[in-house]
Amino acid sequence: MGLKIFCAVFILAFMCHAVKGASILALFSSLSYSDHLVYRGYVSRLAQRGHNVVVMTPYPGHFQFPEVDRIVELDVGQDSSPYWDEFKLLMTNTDDYYPRLKAIDEFSVKLAIAQLKSKPMTALLINPTISFDLVITEADVPLLYAVAEKYKAPHIAITTSSGKIHQYESKGNPIHPILYPDVNSLSYGNLGHWDRISEVYRQYKSRGEYYNNYLPLCELAAKKLFGLKRSLLQVEHDIDLLFVASNPALIGNRPSAPAVVYVDRMHITPGLSLPQELFNLLESSTKGVVYFSLGAVQESEQLAVPLLQTLADSFGELPFTVLWKIANTTMITKPANVITHSWFPQQQVLAHPNVKALITNGGSRSLEEAVFYGVPIIGLPLVKSRKVFINEITKHGAGEILDPYNLDKETVIATINAVASNEKYKNAMVKVKSTVVNPLISGPDDAVWWTEYLLRNREARQLRSPAVGISSFRYYLLDIACYLLIAISLALCLSYYMIRAVARSVRRRFWLYRGLDGSGKFKAL
User: How many independent structural domains does the chain possess?
Assistant: First the structure.
């Protein structure tokens, strides 16, 4: 009897677990390794919750036990590799202007087409028996939206950036070139007249590039690959939820519809151990350590040699040990206190108490990690748009910003010494962390909660703003303004003609009266 009860409970538990698990397709096209840290963190959490996930990725083989048992990776790395050099060139180009944006968009279309035509994806897409309970796509590649349309499944789009104009517009969030920065903003805050004009023009060009070039190219490809029956813009508007992998308090606060969910810290894993040799080095650096990294794609070797030498000479005069993520140092003279390597485990390094400051290009993941581990930052924004988001941290006193195009040795030394030695920067960063790192504001758990909300309800379009799909003409009530202008014009015209008619009548009566009493001009007649 006891065995029967045990078997019944076991079967019931298994059935409940099976009902709970969902079949999910996730499509991630980006060649940025740091982007996939976020995607893997998200997929791992879904697998840990019992969901089965099929993932298109150019970086397979990084999932760990036990979640790996519920994840099937469709490896498109071989099909993506011919595009690596072009991707690297585009990402390391520090020009923030329209031609670079257009080139990146057109590259993204080429890359996504190659990935969707790969053998693993073709085998999946041509199989008529496969269906999914949910499709997750990279929000920066609209071509992938068409896959959710193909499977007629609920749809989540996730961006690892601070969000682009069209992504916020698709959920009805307000956009404004001055008040609400997007990932391509060049200036933000207390702007002068010229900067305000520049930002208005930049947003105009950015929107035009997306709606007049990038989206039509993606739609054309979607019709050829999937036979898309409706416009890709409509598909984008019907995305149920948009996940933004950033903290809203650190990317310029904006009013958001419930369909926009902020899910930062997805890739952060506290408690990871350091390699023994590196651990010993950090432990022995009692005066402190400064860590310098330009990110996963932007490499120090690509900087001009005079700039590299200025940095090296400055590091040599610091009392700290400097960890510098750079593979090739043959072009400079490396000081004795500088340790170089092509890669460092950044999270583990920043988690060590002897690390006093992070010198960063301002990548999203680096800023997240600096805030989470309470390390003050020194911004070195090679790409101008990164300065906007570095400043969202430094304005609280948690760091400083250097101008990489106007750099001198004395300034570098003074800035690093101040940030690494003065406790006010550390205290300010700790305060920033306590203020913004809060599950009520954003966090990785929100990604899982809202995903399962969508799985339970099958749609979340009721959470988007009613502004979705409304033209700017109607959104800013310009149609009402036109009606009022027409009404006022008609009223003024009518008033004019009425007054003129009355004036003529009065004048006629006046002249007639003067003629009758004999005092007029022609009295003698």
Answer: 3
